[in-house]
From TrEMBL:
<keyword id="KW-0808">Transferase</keyword>
<protein>
    <submittedName>
        <fullName>Amidinotransferase</fullName>
    </submittedName>
</protein>
<dbReference type="GO" id="GO:0016740">
    <property type="term" value="F:transferase activity"/>
</dbReference>
<dbReference type="InterPro" id="IPR014541">
    <property type="entry name" value="Amdntrnsf_FN0238"/>
</dbReference>
<dbReference type="Pfam" id="PF19420">
    <property type="entry name" value="DDAH_eukar"/>
</dbReference>
Length: 328
């Protein structure tokens, strides 16, 4: 595991997935209306299963939680309410949409404490009563090597909440404006940017103003990283919504097939110098404006037990061989 590429993840498999009507106003990547259909829910369930199996096959340890509730349409995106950090630190975040606040789960926190060395859990969710939101590694894209938090300014990333996080966790905030060609602000930074160990995928042209854009690119290039500039069409195809992970045979870049198919050969070559691209079709889940990166909560924590296989789809607190499990 590197600072940027964890070897274990949490996924949440939804049984009643749907497009969230509460988030439609500011998520321009959301491309469908709610329909409460069994077919849509079944498709999202299968897509999440496919992601879990693909990551497992690559040698990533997967903690797969079930969500059978009907009032959490976006529960497949746990990265917005929780993040974990080297040194045993966990953050819990304040969420903009009231129905997304229901996604926070004690059983996931209990799993982390049981399976990994957790020193503290800092819970920012109380900021919601004051209208202050910071939607985790959706609102922030974290450079764990350079200790920089890149944040596209939006109502999902309040500056007060961001300052508290950066002070507690030791990051420098780097805030910028980002918008699509029509001028609509980008709602989550992780749709725009992916920071890996040796490269960055970023919608550079969408960062504003020009001087700030140049400053961000210079900072992203620190340490020799190569910046791969994605155009707006590629951002819409979720090419920037990817995550580097550590598998048993080296680092991988997990992304949707749609995002991978949008890459040019020269862009793919930069990625494949240090990562193997692992793709999964998630078209149903992408209707909600998020893709593979949004589905993954990375675990940057040290396992409690020695000899634990890094790969597998694991039950919470189980001592047996990894298997699929249900956690309610």
């Amino acid at each position: 595991m590197t600072a940027q590429a964890p070897s274990a993840v949490v996924l949440v498999r939804p049984h009643h997935f749907d497009v969230n009507p509460v988030t439609a106003a500011d998520n321009v990547f959301q491309t469908a209306e709610p329909n409460h259909s069994a077919a849509r829910a079944t498709s999202a369930y299968r897509e999440t299963t496919a992601l879990a199996e693909a990551l497992q096959a690559a040698g990533v340890r997967v903690h797969l939680f079930e969500d059978e509730r009907t009032d959490r349409p976006d529960s497949v995106f746990p990265n917005n309410w929780i993040s974990t950090h080297i040194g045993g630190h966990v953050a819990v975040y304040p969420m903009f949409a009231p129905n997304r606040r229901l996604e926070r789960r004690q059983d996931i926190l209990d799993l982390l404490k049981a399976e990994y060395r957790v020193q503290d859990i800092i819970d920012y969710s109380g900021l919601e009563v004051d209208g202050l939101y910071l939607e985790g590694t959706g609102a922030m894209v974290l450079d764990n090597d350079e200790r920089v938090a890149y944040v596209a300014r939006s109502n999902r990333a309040d500056p007060i909440a961001l300052e508290r996080f950066c002070t507690n966790f030791g990051y420098e905030p780097m805030v910028f404006d980002a918008a699509d060609p029509s001028g609509t602000p980008i709602y989550h930074t992780n749709v725009l940017m992916c920071i890996a160990t040796d490269f960055v995928l970023a919608g550079v042209s969408m960062m504003q103003p020009d001087a700030r854009r140049a400053e961000i690119v210079e900072r992203l290039s620190a340490g020799g990283r190569e910046v791969v500039d994605l155009d707006f069409d590629q951002i819409c195809d979720f090419a920037g919504n990817a995550m580097e992970l550590s598998g048993t045979n080296g680092r991988i870049l997990a992304m949707s097939r749609r995002g991978a198919d949008s890459l040019r050969p020269d862009q793919r070559a930069v990625i494949e110098r240090s990562c193997r691209i692992v793709t999964v079709d998630v078209p149903t889940i992408e209707l909600s404006g998020g893709s593979v990166r949004c589905m993954i909560a990375g675990i940057h924590l040290t396992p409690r037990r020695t000899g634990v296989s890094p790969a597998g789809i694991s039950p919470a607190g189980a001592d047996a061989a990894p298997t699929l499990f249900a956690s309610h």
